[in-house]
Design a protein that fits this description.
By secondary structure, the protein is an alpha+beta fold. The protein folds into 2 domains: about 170 residues, no CATH class; about 100 residues, no CATH class. About 45% of the residues lie in helices and about 15% in strands. It contains 12 helices and 8 strands. The chain has a 6-stranded antiparallel sheet with strand order 2-3-1-4-7-8. Strand 5 and strand 6 form a beta hairpin. Helix 2 runs antiparallel to helix 3 and helix 10 packs across helix 11. The longest helix has 18 residues. It is elongated and about 75 Å long. It starts with a helix and ends with a helix.
Length: about 280
């Protein structure tokens, strides 16, 4: 039995707080926990939102009372597989914390909304590691304390000022770096090149590892601050042509040239040379 979460839960109960668990509804142990509760003791967080059709698979918040509850043991003993986390509240009223996370679950501009996976312990861990402690209250809201698994061990942190807060614009936790983002981007670009530029990619493989080559190209994009899909596609495809066909572009930025101006100038140069050729 993992000692840390049970010790944390016991301490929270001794302080007069109520315990809650965030877990995905699709988890069989979450289903068992829900079945043992009345409707006031749990809530699917996607219900009554724009993504209500996903409520049966999305996160659920459940009140906990009996620490020895059998269905609770598996999520705590297998945190890597279950991906939830624990929190404590001032009372058994779930409405404030439900409202808090519902206001934060959809991110992005209208027409391009995405779900923020606050219920994943990896997301919670990254946010708390990135945010200064002074910003924890606007992220954790009514939660007094949290306990979660991350990188091989249990962690717990107290919220310095629990309460209800509006969502700031921009929300600072959305700036949290994703350690897998670079690997995901590289995989997507290589897949695109394999589909759309397979001959050039095959030629590159003959003399260079495409992953090493792509990492170098993306590092150049980072230095030049070329971040948009259009800029990345242009840089990667044209660099691939250079490596395999011998074509050449004058890439370097001019002194004092802004990233957008740099890109537009190089793009225009390439178009003109293509027309002349």
């Amino acid at each position: 039995m993992p000692d840390v979460p049970y010790q944390w839960m016991a301490q929270q109960q001794q302080a007069g707080r109520r315990l809650c668990l965030i877990l995905e509804a699709g988890n069989e142990h979450c289903q068992s926990l829900m079945a043992a509760r009345n409707l006031s003791q749990y809530c699917p967080l996607y219900a009554e939102t724009a993504v209500a059709e996903l409520a049966s698979k999305g996160p659920v918040i459940l009140l906990l009372e009996q620490l020895g509850e059998p269905a609770l043991a598996h999520p705590l003993q297998n945190p890597e597989a279950n991906r939830g986390w624990l929190g404590s509240l001032p009372s058994d009223d779930l409405i404030p914390v439900i409202r808090h996370w519902r206001e934060r679950l959809l991110v992005g501009p209208e027409g391009e909304k995405a779900l923020y996976r606050f219920h994943d312990n990896r997301t919670l861990a990254r946010a708390l590691a990135y945010l200064p402690v002074a910003q924890w209250p606007i992220y954790l809201g009514p939660l007094i304390s949290v306990c979660y698994w991350h990188e091989g061990r249990w962690h717990s942190h107290d919220n310095p000022a629990p309460g209800e807060y509006p969502v700031p614009d921009p929300a600072p936790w959305l700036q949290t770096p994703n350690p897998q983002a670079a690997a995901i981007l590289q995989a997507n670009i290589l897949r695109y090149l394999l589909t759309e530029h397979s001959e050039d990619l095959a030629a590159l493989v003959e003399f260079q590892d495409p992953r090493i080559w792509l990492a170098q190209v993306l590092e150049q994009a980072r230095i030049w601050q070329w971040r948009s899909p259009e800029q990345l596609e242009f840089l990667v495809v044209r660099r691939l042509e250079e490596a395999t066909r011998g074509s050449a572009i004058r890439w370097q930025p001019l002194d004092g040239e802004a990233p957008t101006q740099h890109f537009e100038r190089v793009l225009e140069q390439w178009r003109k040379e293509g027309t002349q050729g």
